[in-house]
Design brief:
This is GNAT family N-acetyltransferase. By secondary structure, the protein is α+β, with helices and mostly antiparallel strands. It is 29% helix and 29% strand.
Length: 173
């Protein structure tokens, strides 16, 4: 575990980060969702799949980490390695969104959990704004992190048709 919170650089992603973001995103999902999603979908997680998604997003993203769709992305770097990212944007639900802002994702590799880097990402990109998010049922560590940031489960739940992941909605007003 990394001890020095000050050793992190929070910055916008760059085009040259695409492969590292793909590897990071895949690693985090493999660490966090083992046993929580459909076995076939879990087996299909590859760094290349995630990198291709990041490449599409980066095509339109500005150098400040803002995308025309309203998404704002930042990455956390430690010792020249990406160790986490956050993505915040407008509510994805067309109806029934509890707030206008959604925390689309915050992901940190397990070696850097508990260092404060996720909190720093949250503070720098989302701040204290009202927002909501979807968290995997069974991802208790993430739920506790969100609760410390004043998010509360609101009773909404959904099952992803593609990967079988059951998600719970959390809201902060």
């Amino acid at each position: 575990m990394v001890e020095e919170e000050s050793a992190y650089v929070i910055r916008p992603p760059r085009v040259e980060d695409v492969d590292a973001l793909g590897a990071l995103h895949c690693q985090v999902w493999r660490e966090a969702y083992v046993g929580l999603m459909d076995d076939d979908a879990f087996a299909a997680l590859t760094p290349q799949r995630f990198a291709s998604g990041w490449a599409r997003r980066m095509e339109q993203m500005g150098p400040d980490g803002h995308h025309p769709n309203g998404e704002h992305v930042a990455v956390a770097e430690h010792a020249d390695q990406l160790v986490g990212f956050i993505s915040v944007g407008p509510a994805r639900e067309q109806e029934d969104a509890p707030t206008d802002t959604q925390l689309w994702a915050i992901n940190v590799v397990s070696d850097h959990l508990g260092t404060g880097v996720a909190q720093e990402l949250m503070v720098q990109v989302l701040g204290e704004r009202s927002a909501y998010l979807w968290v995997a049922e069974g991802n208790d560590r993430a739920i506790r992190f969100y609760e410390r940031n004043n998010f509360r489960l609101d009773g909404a739940r959904a099952t992803d048709r593609e990967d079988g992941l059951v998600e719970l909605r959390m809201v902060r007003h």
